[in-house]
Structure formats: structure tokens, C-alpha cells
Design a protein that fits this description.
Elements (H helix, E strand, L loop, with lengths): L1 H10 L20 H21 L4 H10 L2 H30 L1 H13 L1 H6 L6 H20 L5 H15 L9 H14 L1
Helix pairs in contact: 1-2, 4-5, 4-7, 7-8
Length: 189
């Protein structure tokens, strides 16, 4: 996925911030990972501009095409931090739902999961991003189902489900329990 994600993002601008084409030209998977990777590329361009005192777009594009290892390293570090954040979020959800021990066990199992470790080493992996947004949607959805969720919880859960769906299509199925939680709470009043 690294070359696909990095390549799709690169084709949106090719190192030149004046030559934008924000269409990733693919329907293979939702495009949020491409846009986030584009953000990383722009961050790297900003770093290189500060480091060198200014860099023309052509020189930057040539540098990235010759030696892209630092750009890939930056993208992979950011994705690894997302993997760590997902472990923390799972701990927090487990702790609130069933106690500290359950939270620690769940976080430990995710942290030691080989697939999670490998996925966390990729560049803006859509699976890891979808997991992150699903975990961010879980706490407000639990509040909604428990009947103590407010408008903020509904907005936050809906936005996170939408962002998860912008990474992978499958998490959009969470729209059903999201709606069901609202219907059930409405009927209980």
C-alpha cells in the first residue's frame, strides 16, 4: 500500500504546490488516505524549504524522486503514532466499558497483534485509519446507546463514522447501530 498511497498523493501535485489536481483518479478505495499522505508530503516540503532556505518545486520533485527514503520515513513514523494512539483508545474504551483490567488486556492484545504492528508501519494505511476513526466513534456511540449522549456525541460519532468510511467502505455499517441507538433512546422518552 505504501507506493500506491504515496504515488496517488504525489500525482495530485508532483511536488509543485501550484499544479494541483486533487482527484486521486481511482475508485479502488476511498481517498482519505491519499489526502492525508498529501498533507505529509506538503509537511515534508515545508521542512525541506526551511532546512535549505527555499527550494524550487522542480528541485524538490527531483530530490524526492532521487531519494524518497526520508519522506517515506516521516510518513511511516506518523502512521506508527496512529497505531500507538489506537492502542491507547482501545484501552480507554475497555476501561470505561468493563474496567481497567479489561482495558489493559484489550490494549495489550492489539499492541501485540502482528497484523496491527505491520499495518502501523505502512504509509497512511486505510485499514489503520479506519480503525482509528471507529475507535473515536465508539465512546460517543456508547453514550448514545446508554441514553446519556447529547448532540455533541451524535455529531462526533457521525463525523467519525463518516471519516472511517472515507478510509474504507466497511465501517459505514456503523451507521445502522448509530441510527438504532437514536431510535431506541427516542422511544424510551
Amino acid at each position: 500500500t505504501d507506493r500506491t498511497t504515496m504515488g496517488r498523493a504525489w500525482t495530485m501535485w508532483k511536488g509543485n504546490p501550484t499544479g494541483w489536481d486533487l482527484n486521486p483518479h481511482t475508485g479502488g478505495w476511498p481517498a482519505l488516505s491519499f489526502y492525508l499522505t498529501l498533507g505529509i508530503q506538503l509537511l515534508y516540503k515545508g521542512y525541506q524549504t526551511l532546512r535549505t532556505g527555499g527550494m524550487e518545486p522542480g528541485a524538490f520533485a527531483n530530490m524526492v524522486q532521487r531519494e524518497s527514503n526520508h519522506l517515506f520515513l516521516l510518513a511511516r513514523i506518523i502512521n506508527a503514532l496512529i497505531g500507538v494512539l489506537s492502542v491507547y483508545l482501545l484501552f480507554r474504551i475497555g476501561r470505561r466499558a468493563a474496567g481497567r483490567t479489561v482495558g489493559l488486556i484489550a490494549a495489550f492484545l492489539l499492541a501485540m497483534n502482528t497484523l496491527h504492528i505491520l499495518t502501523s508501519q505502512h504509509v497512511m494505511d486505510p485499514n489503520l485509519l479506519a480503525l482509528l476513526f471507529v475507535l473515536l466513534a465508539t465512546e460517543p456511540m456508547l453514550a448514545i446507546v446508554a441514553g446519556r449522549g447529547g448532540l455533541g456525541d451524535s455529531v462526533r460519532a457521525g463525523a467519525m463514522i463518516g471519516l472511517a468510511g472515507a478510509c474504507k467502505y466497511v465501517p459505514l455499517v456503523l451507521g445502522l447501530p448509530f441510527l438504532w441507538g437514536h431510535i431506541e433512546n427516542r422511544n424510551d422518552r
